[in-house]
Design goal:
This protein has 515 residues and is an alpha+beta fold. The protein is built from 13 helices and 17 strands.
């Protein structure tokens, strides 16, 4: 209801003779034309609430003739209920106030209508109230549309609440129209930011200040620059964009779609399960390709080793024979160098051929502690080196693992041998330690081989598993050991990784799935 205000007193003018039902100072012809042209229903009542005038819209709506209305009161024409309902407004009008009301009203012989009713007092030039106008605007259709819109909005909100994905809708000015609880929960937004009218800038700023970044946002850049870049990117969208980002530990497909009215619909679909499954498939394919490549290399190495061994044996035999016959010390030294180089070449070929001798992988129940003991025997023929502090920690009651114990023992033995050689070559002071930890984590058997040696330089961390890459002297390594170990781990459905070791040393982790 509008606040009451005093009615304007119309000035005194010379007017034609009074027209029936209208004030004496009104130009009847002009006033009647104006009132009949109005889309509202207009009635004029005297102080006793009797109908003195109605415009054309009133008679057409009520379906009555003037003689059925004029001179009668509200109760006689509209009914006692309508008379009682409007009595408070009439009392206010008699005090000189203008009153406006809105609401549903029942009419005799008519369906319910939603109307806006204005009561306006009219005074004579001497200040006495002559009567009052009542203007009735029919807002039924507008109210129906509003209610329909509200129902549609409620239905949409209900649907959005039931959607697990995060959904948010912005208008053309990038102000929030609506969002579901999933969006607020995903980003951790407070309920206040979920209110309609919130600008996208506020949402982005809140997210960035709490350290939640999309994959294409660099945390080191100023927040205001990131906000401006994100706002400009959304403003440039004409149809639809899709991106995949990792947010709050989930892989999400962000789909931004420009709607016909210029608004922007943004959905965040959780694709973590599918993404991880696809990644696992890719890794499996890559593993098979690497294994196939290793098999090819192994076959090539076996062939090369066989072909090279024969001439090496001949060179060594001839050089040894000459060494026994020559007495010149200088020539004998040269022949000795030839023999040493030939023997070194033979050891390299033997190592390559041993790595190449691959057989069909067995599938049998493995005893992990027994497999580790086998690996230690392979790595240390004469037992634990006396200068080494070795510690083995096994989780009790380890489950059985299905695989090839010889191959797993080969992997562990290779890791132990590498660690032992690195520790032996280290010149640092203090005890030299090697630890093997065995446990269960996330349905995997975890075998960790860690030492406190010099570790792996940062520039080599990504290359140590590459075939033929080695940091050892030529007489000690061929660069196929770790590559073969990783291939064997992957053939068992597991992984061999180099862990970060902030305190120094090297830590290799073998993960074997229990399924």
């Amino acid at each position: 209801m509008a606040p009451p205000r005093k009615a304007r007193v119309m000035p005194s003018t010379e007017a034609p003779a009074r027209a029936p039902g209208l004030p004496p100072f009104a130009d009847a012809h002009v006033l009647r034309g104006i009132l009949d042209a109005m889309p509202a229903r207009v009635s004029y009542f005297d102080k006793d609430r009797q109908f003195c005038y109605n415009n054309k819209e009133f008679y057409e709506f009520m379906g009555l003739a003037p003689e059925q209305v004029l001179g009668r009161n509200v109760a006689q024409v509209l009914g006692q209920q309508a008379s009682d309902e409007t009595l408070p407004q009439v009392e206010a009008v008699r005090r000189g106030e203008t009153i406006r009301t809105e609401g549903w009203r029942d009419y005799k012989g008519q369906v319910r209508r939603f109307v806006q009713t204005t009561f306006i007092p009219l005074f004579e030039p001497n200040g006495a109230m002559d009567g009052y106008f009542v203007l009735v605007r029919d807002l039924t259709e507008s109210e129906h549309q509003k209610e329909e819109l509200e129902r549609g909005t409620q239905q949409l909100e209900g649907v959005m609440r039931g959607i697990d994905d995060a959904v948010v809708l912005f208008d053309a000015d990038l102000r929030l129209v609506l969002c579901n609880q999933g969006y607020l929960d995903l980003m951790g937004f407070p309920p206040l930011l979920g209110r309609p009218g919130t600008h996208m800038e506020c949402l982005i700023r809140d997210r960035l200040e709490r350290g939640i970044f999309y994959g294409d946002e660099k945390p080191g850049k100023p927040i205001e620059d990131l906000i401006r870049t994100r706002i400009e990117a959304h403003a440039r969208i004409r149809r639809e964009t899709q991106n995949i980002h990792r947010i709050q530990g989930k892989w999400l497909n962000l789909r931004r779609r420009r709607l016909s009215d210029g608004s922007l619909l943004v959905t965040h679909t959780d694709i973590t399960a599918k993404y991880e499954a696809d990644r696992a498939k890719r890794e499996q394919r890559e593993t098979l390709q690497r294994v196939a490549q290793m098999e090819t290399n192994a076959t090539l190495l076996a062939g090369l080793g066989h072909e090279i061994n024969n001439p090496l044996a001949a060179i060594l035999a001839q050089a040894s024979g000459l060494a026994r016959k020559i007495t010149d010390p200088g020539l004998a030294r040269h022949l000795e160098c030839i023999c040493e180089a030939t023997e070194r070449a033979g050891r390299i070929v033997h190592s390559l051929m041993r790595s190449a001798r691959r057989r069909e992988q067995r599938q049998e129940v493995m005893d992990i502690p027994a497999t580790i003991r086998m690996a230690l025997e392979l790595a240390w023929n004469d037992g634990t080196p006396p200068w080494l502090e070795f510690h083995l920690e096994e989780k009790p009651d380890l489950p059985k693992f299905i695989g090839d114990s010889d191959q797993i023992a080969h992997v562990i033995a290779n890791l132990v041998s590498n660690a032992t050689q690195a520790l032996e070559a280290a010149n640092g002071q203090g005890a030299k330690r090697l630890n093997i930890d065995v446990g269960i984590k996330e349905n995997h058997i975890i075998i960790r081989v860690a030492d406190n040696g010099p570790g792996v330089p940062a520039e080599n961390r990504e290359r140590i598993f590459d075939p033929f890459f080695t940091t050892k002297p030529p007489e000690q390594g061929t660069g196929v050991g770790l590559a073969l170990c990783r291939a064997l781990a992957q053939a068992h459905g597991g992984r061999l990784e180099l862990e970060e070791t902030p305190g120094g040393g090297a830590s290799f982790v073998l993960r074997l799935p229990l399924q």
